[in-house]
Amino acid sequence: MTRMITIGAAQLGPIARNESREEVVDRLLALLRRGAEFGCELVVFPELALTTFFPRWYLDEGGPTGIGGDTTELDSYYEIEMPNPATKPLFDEAKRLAVGFCLGYAELTPDGHRYNTYMLVDRAGDIVGKYRKVHIPGHENYEPWRQFQHLERRYFEESPDGFSVFPAFGGIVGMAICNDRRWPETYRVMGLQGAEMILIGYNTPLNYAPDPSQNPLQSFHNQLVMQAGAYQNGTWVVGVAKGGIEEGVESLAQSVIIAPSGQIVAQATSIGDELISVACDLDMCDRYKKTLFDFDRYRRPEMYHLITSTDGPQALVDGHEIVFGEDDDVAAGTALADPTGVHGIEITTPTDDSRDDSHEDHADATPEGSTP
Length: 372
Ligand code: CDT
Description:
Shape: globular
Largest sheet: 7 strands, mixed
Bound molecules: 4-methylsulfanyl-2-ureido-butyric acid
Number of strands: 18
Helix content: 10-25%
Structural class: alpha/beta
Strand content: 15-25%
């Protein structure tokens, strides 16, 4: 018997800065109901699906030391409990329709922590689990050179929890949020826990200020990372956008459902509210998990220790860090083949202080003192 689940990707168009929670929840309810009509058991909404993408504005008065001063508007974008009066109708409707959902929102915990959170709710309207974003992109402080800010690193803490999976909807479900999808570790950590469906919400501006040469590649990179993540881990991937022009900022739409083969099997055609759905065969995962990507048989974890022992970038030869000297046009391959210190290469013993955190590859495009 095959394990089939019909999943809906509920893409959202823009959410205005002054749009109320009730107005947004009405839009989510319409998509949930459309999902029910399509036979969905699970409907996946995007990252920060209850509000505008507020990290595009500098909204507090705290300065470089962190959030402070008047935080009234900033705080208005976070949920302090879930469900709450504005979102309760979504939980009630999920139960009535027997359609679960996955929802992205900004979470403010009772002890004052701020997270970019995803929540999985089952067909009875009960919370199955939460995921807090691991890879937080953008910058911490106001950067006047940008057309718009990307202050996620100011307004969200990095998850202290990491990537979990949940037995739900007849399979193993994992969650990730936006920038997480660009990192192979995201999928692999969940793949190692047997993930069969990875749900990913995103808000991706088409204008990447630190390196505009990447702008025309946004769609390609979006598909590249999610298709690779699906294939290399034998899992379904559901990528759901908040797209369109929101408060003057254009974001990528192109929500997709990707099979464990890496093939895109459905894609949104609009840049607004739209539901796409696919009947997903969870047993298809095993075709990859038990053959090419039979982790138990073929993985070599002892060869991968650098992945967890460093956060990079480092070029190491026999445990020694290579520091490029003045004659820096030496290819990295030559450096590795010739660890004797010739060609302007000096070999040092790594220390915490010797780590290169300057992100020199962005130096031309990004004004001094700023971060991607
Ligand atoms: N929301 C989110 O994570 N967006 C990032 C863009 C970062 S640009 C500073 C993404 O990876 O799509």
